Amino acid sequence: MSTLALFWPHPGLAARSDELDVARAHRRLSTPKTFIESFGLDDGASTEHVWDAFFSIPGLLPPEMTDIDAEQLASLDEDDEEASRGLTEHVRHALEAQGSEQLSHPDLAELAAFAPGSVTFRALRSAAGAASTDSGVWRSAFVLAEGLRSLFNRTETIALLTTLYGDAQHYWKSVLAYCADGNLRAVLDEYLFQLASELGTTELDDSALMLVARRAVDALSLRSTRYVARGNTGDRRDVRFTARFAVRYGGKQESADEKAGVRQGEVRTSFNSPFAPFVLASTSVGQEGIDFHWWSHSVIHWNLPSNPVDFEQREGRVNRFAGHAVRKNVAARHWDDVLASHDPHAWRAAFTAAIQSENELGEFSPWWMYPGPARIHRVLTHYPLSRDIAKYKRLRSALTLYRLTLGQPRQEDMVDMLARRGLDATELPVIDLRPPSSANALH
Length: 443
Fold this sequence. Notes:
Largest sheet: 3 strands, antiparallel
Strand order of the largest sheet: 4-3-5
Distance between the termini: 72 Å
Strand content: 5-15%
Helix content: 40-55%
Shape: globular
Structural class: mainly alpha
Radius of gyration: 26 Å
């Protein structure tokens, strides 16, 4: 029941408080303690188990879903029949708690504030459009919370949380602490904004909400697959192993997913999420035609290509529309505008303010470039006596000239190249490539 309470979207508790509303009320980012206190859940008879208090709070389901039974709820996103039977019994127990005496527990407010189920419901509610329904939001939150459950069930996740919080407390309390420390709501708000942008809309109806929820679940619940390598002995025996995020490069195909060519897309979807994997190592096959910009703005070059076009293509993987560096700058500059706005979606409010602000970037702003401290990072590995050291100097100049033909030089590289040629960049004429304003266009 503790697990069910962790991942159950509770509209009644969500109606009591919201992270963004609390931040706007205090005109600053709220602390976990402030947010917990905003729920006001001290009333009621005390109970031994926090989940009894959780399920006793009115509003366990949206009004239009009050007639749904335990079997229907348990089958919303459950494939395994035996697991579904166990889940059904737990759901039935939760539904029976409705209408009974409201109970309290010292951990109830913390559960309401940071449980993944509650957080997913509030995040999807803020992202939902006018055409969405309460039941549609709840169903999408139930599916997304189930994806988060699979994430917290992983062996590596359990090991991480045990390292961070120890094993003296129950694991579900470590999950709550991790969601609070990592600000799961902010993570989901940004992720849902990206997923909605990929659909080409910010007005999400019930079907679009479920689509983005399932897309997130695909990234969260990537399963391990089997690979076959060859040993380094003379007989070259097969070595079988499993991996969650690796994509086959050479060798034998072992699983049906690999044969179908599905694995690459699955791993790419997981990488383009705020969840693991956090580092992508690739051969040159990943240097063009693939987007990695959603949560990356650094490229480490283990070697250098022979021409500036390939060099540009590599860094172009993380320098794209509404990329990570762009969003970091928009967030840094327009947090106060978000607090002053009444828009329930923080990122929509931030980009609305960015669109209305003035800067020198023209139509590239705010989606492709935006002023601020975040930049696309280029990291090169300079090995001693490597030919890449001299090669980089030539390649950097060639890349600057290549970009100059497109009207988009990297300013640091441009200034450095001019200095090496004995020219002062401040004394050179400037070509203004911005489109003419509407006032000038009339003349």
